[in-house]
Amino acid sequence: MSEPISALNGARYDGIATIEELGLQGMITLRGDLDEKGLAKAAAAATDQQMPGPRKAHVTDDSGLCWMSPDEVLVLVPYAEVEDKLAGMVKALGNSHALAVNVSDARAVFRVSGTHAREVVAKLAPVDLSDGAFKPGDFRRTRLAQVAAAFWMEEDGAFRIVCFRSVADYVFKLLKVAAQPGSEVGVL
Amino acid sequence: MSTRLSKLGRLIDRTKQVSFSFNGTTMRGFAGDTLASALLANDQMMMGRSFKYHRPRGVVASGAEEPNALVGLGEGSRFEPNQRATTTELFEGLSAKSQNHWPNLDFDIGAVNTAFARFLPAGFYYKMFIHPQPFWKHVYEPFIRKSAGLGKAPDAETRDADTYEHFYAFTDVLIIGGGVAGLQAAKAAALTGVKVLLVEQTAHWGGRAPVDGGTIDEGPVDKFVEQIVSELETMDNVTMRLRCMGAGIYDHGYALAYERLTDHAPQVAGPRHRLWRIRAKQIVTATGAIERPLSFAGNDVPGVMLASAMRDYVVNWGVTPGERVVVATNNDDAYRTAITLKNAGVDVLRILDARASGGGALADEVRALGIRVDPGKAIAKVSGGKRVKKVSICNQEGIGGARDEVSCDAVAMSGGWSPVVHLWSHCGGKLIWDDAQAHFRPDPDRPPLGADGAGFVSVAGAANGALALGETLSDANAAGLAAAKAAGGKAKRPKAPLGESAAELPMEPVWLMPANADTPLRVKSWLDFQNDVKVSDVQLAAREGYESVEHTKRYTTLGMATDQGKLSNINGLAILADALNAEIPQVGTTTFRPPYTPISMGAIGGEARGEVFQPIRRTPLHDWHDRNGADWEPVGHWRRPYAYQLPGESVEAAVNREVKNTRENLGLLDASTLGKLIVKGPDAGRFLDMMYTNMMSTLKPGKCRYGLMCSENGFLIDDGVVARIDEDTWLCHTTTGGAERIHAHMEEWLQTEWWDWKVYVANVTEQYAQVAVVGPNARKVLEKLGGMDVSKEALPFMEWRDGQIGGFDCRAYRISFSGELSYEIAVAASRGQAFWDALTEAGKEFGVMPYGTECLHILRAEKGFIMIGDETDGTVIPQDLGLHWALSKKKEDYLGKRAQQRSHMADPDRWKLVGLETVDGSVLPDGAYAVGEGTNANGQRNMIGRVTSTYYSANLDRGIAMGLVKHGPDRMGEVIEIPGTDGKSYKAKIVDPVFFDKDGEKQNV
């Protein structure tokens, strides 16, 4: 069988920040009571991460947990393992009321890095991205200009941005505009 | 003449010459000039003509308040009208054109309007242009359009060459205005440790204080500004932006600032403007004050300027607007202009001080310089056409008689100062009238209120009415500190610097000069320069019964121009108050609305232009469609192929080919855009029984059911096939446009009404590439690819199975929206293209062709299937469409059930769905109405129905249509009349809506 192809197949742009479309990322939407031990355990087993608090993400490489809402967490796993991890999680959840569903292919993932990464994102998302307010491990479910998006900050200060696959092209072009040469704001 | 002085000019760099053009003439200025100062240096006092009377006009101010000196800036794709010369920084190659004249600035035919001024009084639009009616379209409108209006709109075919952006900023304290007050407020706030954002609209810190003189902490003001700026620059918690105007203040501490990045340096890369979208805990407006003109006859003749502006030109840019100047004032501040001019070597002929007692310490200083001061005197009239020639002098108390004349070439006027209260007022801050200074200033007890009921805007310095330098600084210091504390700053008590300036005697309000000016003078006394509103116009409005200042504004157009009455406002309402015999505070002000000065449309749009004007949603197969002749159709934010054109083929021919091929061979449709919602939980069945009109809880795993969804008002809002995945999981298909809407609809009911039901919903629409494999050869191609059993027995109609086809993991639904043998196969989106390729390759021998949305529509219409958005429009209920079979009678309730029992919903006269067959086989016009007997109360023909879907069916070789018709199903076989907008009237027979394969044999194989 052919290889799966991500929305933009690894597109890249270098402006005042570097914009890269990353390959496919395994993603599972998990809805349920986040305080419930069984659920947290199932999520931890799939990712080796603890359940994050509100507006936080616990991510290492391509495994992690991102807080999406009081009853939703985004589970990140390696793309190749998503079906196995999902099956394991469903099994672990047993009869408890929860929903776990594979959404890996419904998404596109970008990385925005470089000195002005904060400013590039702050041109598009109504989020306080000053270094005192937004640090590695912080997560926001928000919008980029006209579309829904979520992002978190990695240890090196780069942003990992998730959006819907259908608007990957729009988001890439948006980020390009926001990272155009000469557009440094000089405050973040 | 106006000319460059050999010295002064704190903002210009005389070593850097800059050349620019005005009306095609090349001129020279210096780096640091504004367009206005550079034009004055070139003796170009006249900079435009007025809006209504086309009177010659020169620059009157030196900043954002300028009403007259508006120019068209730039060329072609960078042309922009109505740009203020006073706020346009000069750059090499700048090209400006004056406005409102034909054929040229010096000789203008429209100026003849002045001669007819008495025919163009206040409210003249309302009075003159009502009768006779046909004159409006053919005479009045073309005339007004030609003679009125400010700058020209850019050419419709050009596209702005620049880019723009937004920037979201968060701060504790936002300070608007970078004069000494703003700087001191920023420092006071910053010392408490809070985050401070300081924005200044001009290119320089310090505002006008360095021009006005005085000392701060015993040193020159310039020095203080330099020091405090460098101090603030070193503070990590302070952000400072020049060329960044506070444009508006809104609820919840939201503010907009408009940063002009490259207007002064168009060759620099990057966006032209940036709109800062700011959230601040506290906002301090340190917006300064604006000097008021005096209302005397001829106050609009080029060469008459605000006194403060005149000294700005001398001190900041080393330009004098005239060589022999007369000063008219009602306050001490204007004496500073006389001193400045005299010290710069300009002749100051007289100071006419309307106050009988004359001025204070500054007046003594002026007299010591040998300048004549005439207390109690006023300007009766300024004469001169395109330039001040002479001033007639009279007593302030009087009607303007017994005149003395002085010939001069410039007049400086000062009617006192009005605090810039705009930003304070945007979000509801109230004003109080200050009798002593004769101006409105912010009422500290009635600030704009935040969500917590506490004020979130405060005012500092001159904007607060604290006009003297010492007061300005101490007021600003206190305001900055208070704002910082309110924003959570730690109490510090920074000491205010000591500002000292000459003591001033009180001003005396002068709303008309002379006080009892007779009519010939009042009709030449301008209030609003930009919109050509005179004292006499406002007085006429009052006589005609206009009492409200808001009505008077609209009737006379006072303050309605692009400057929004920054100079005219207070003078106008003082005149109105006088005419109404009321106090000024009783009359009140008009409403201050953002933006403070006009901001570019580009900045408002931000990045949203060109490729990213709007998001376009793309399926995993989008690029393939694009490469294979797709004629795109927008469906929501998606683009879907309407049809695939072969080389040389028309869209219509492509549709007909696809329609036939799908019925006869094999068609492929990209159905990825259809919404897919997972609904799971112990209460999911119960929940879906409420969502859908039909029963979903009884559906067996592995099976599918078509369902209808209604709003609580009973109207159809969506439809689609529901598949039961397992015991407590369902997958609901929605329409393409309905996915997000229905997802939200479900969440809303779950979160607000049935919050205790155990159900989770997830939108998995984009997880899948879904391909409809349709036509007599559908099974053959799937069998050729191999994998799961897709036979009639293994996968019957309205069932689904998981499995593999051609090596692709998939879910296959045996559902049909075409009436053909049909499968919808869902594969992972990232494998969608490969799967489509496999189908296309394998399908060659079976006549495979992709088909688009129009073919889909025709196939479903041939079968009488309804389409949400065609047969429904938000007013249609399932009963109208003959869908009674989908309305469960067993269920106690579902959304819409009770609404559908209302009398109007159950009315037998509701229009109902039928098929329509034209008698001659032609295609009915879409949306056309069927007419019945008689006429309604408006004399229009009675209507009995309308066409909801209409197509040419290549399979039937005739037009087919569906429509909603009164008593339709009872009138089978009747012929009704449907007039088109093409002049023809169509005759159509009412028939069953199923035109093709009525027994459904084709899909059931």
Description:
The complex is a heterodimer of chains A (188) and B (1005). Chain A is an alpha+beta fold and 188 residues long. Chain A has helices at residues 37-47, 82-93, 117-122, 168-178; strands at 12-14, 18-22, 26-31, 57-60, 63-69, 72-77, 99-102, 107-113, 139-144, 147-153, 159-164. Chain A is built from 4 helices and 11 strands. A 6-stranded antiparallel sheet of chain A has the order 1-2-8-11-10-9. In chain A, strands 4-5-6-3-7 form a 5-stranded antiparallel sheet, covered by helices on one side. The model of chain A has no long low-confidence stretch (mean pLDDT 96). By secondary structure, chain B is of the alpha+beta class. Chain B folds into 7 domains: 3-117, Ubiquitin-like (UB roll) (Roll); 166-290 and 419-493, FAD/NAD(P)-binding domain (3-Layer(bba) Sandwich), CATH 3.50.50; 293-415 and 505-514, FAD/NAD(P)-binding domain (3-Layer(bba) Sandwich), CATH 3.50.50; 525-588, BFD-like [2Fe-2S]-binding domain (Arc Repressor Mutant, subunit A, Orthogonal Bundle); 622-673 and 767-859, Probable tRNA modification gtpase trme, domain 1 (Gyrase A, domain 2), CATH 3.30.1360.120; 675-765, Aminomethyltransferase beta-barrel domains (Alpha-Beta Plaits); 908-991, Aminomethyltransferase beta-barrel domains (Elongation Factor Tu (Ef-tu), domain 3, Beta Barrel). Helices cover 22% and strands 29% of the residues of chain B. In chain B, a hairpin with a 2-residue loop joins strand 11 (215-216) and strand 12 (219-220). The longest helix of chain B is centred in the middle third of the chain and has 18 residues, at 469-486. The radius of gyration of chain B is 37 Å and the shape is elongated. The relative contact order of chain B is 0.07.
